[in-house]
C-alpha cells in the first residue's frame, strides 16, 4: 500500500509539474509529445501514433492519451491511454494483465478469466512485449482509469512494453467495433516502438 501511495504521489507531482510548465509556456508541447516528427516517448522508448488518432496530451497518471473516432454504427469512440510510472514501478507484467482482465465481466455478470482473453508474449524490435485482448462489459479501474458506469460490448487491446527505464502500458478501450477498426493501427504503433 505504501508503494502504491508513493507511486500515486509521484504521478501527482509529475502531473502538477507538467501543468506548471504548460502555464509558464502555453505553447510548450506536452511531455509525451516532445520527440520530433510526431513521435511520443516514455520509459526510454519512442513510438509514433497512427495518423487520425487525436492526441489529447498528457493527463495525471498518463504520459499520453489518444482519441480514436467511432466506427460506423458506434455512438462513441475509443481511447488509448499510455501509462509510465517510473523505473521499477507499475508492478509485475502478469499482475497487470490480471488487473486488466479484472476490469471486464462476461454477459452473465461473472468475471472474465484468462481463458476468456488472448494474451501473448513476444519480442518487438528487441523489446519484450505482452499483449492482451479481451471483450465483455468494461467496468473500469476507478475514476481515472475507466467508465463510471459499466459498458457492455466493450473491448480492450493492451500492451505492456518492457522499456529500458521501466514498463510502459498501452491500454486501448472502447466499443468492440471501434476497437476492431483500430486494431491494425494499434499494431503499427507497437511496431514503431524503439529505444531512444
What is shown here, in short?
Helix content is 24%, strand content 38%. The chain is built from 3 helices and 11 strands, in the order αβββββαβββββαβ. The longest helix has 23 residues, at 2-24.
Report what the structure shows:
This protein has 196 residues and is an alpha+beta fold. It has one domain: Protein Transport Mog1p, Chain A (3-Layer(aba) Sandwich), CATH 3.40.1000. The radius of gyration is 16 Å and the shape is globular. It starts with a helix and ends with a strand. The N terminus is likely disordered.
**The CATH class:** Alpha Beta
User: Do you know the CATH topology?
Assistant: Protein Transport Mog1p, Chain A
User: Total number of helical segments?
Assistant: 3
Strand content: 35-45%
Tally of structural domains? 1
**Roughly how much helix do the residues carry, as a percent range?**
10-25%
Q: Kindly report the name of the CATH homologous superfamily.
A: Mog1/PsbP, alpha/beta/alpha sandwich
> Any idea what the CATH architecture is?
3-Layer(aba) Sandwich
The shape, in one word, is globular
Q: How many β-strand runs?
A: 11
Low-confidence stretches: 1-38
Find the structural class using helix and strand composition: alpha+beta
User: What is the chain-wise order of helices and strands?
Assistant: HEEEEEHEEEEEHE
State the separation between the terminal residues, measured CA to CA: 32 Å
- Rg is 16 Å
* Largest sheet: number of strands, sense, barrel closure: 8 strands, antiparallel
Average pLDDT number? 82
Signal peptide: 1-19
Region (Disordered): 20-58
Biased composition (Low complexity): 20-42
Protein name: Lipoprotein
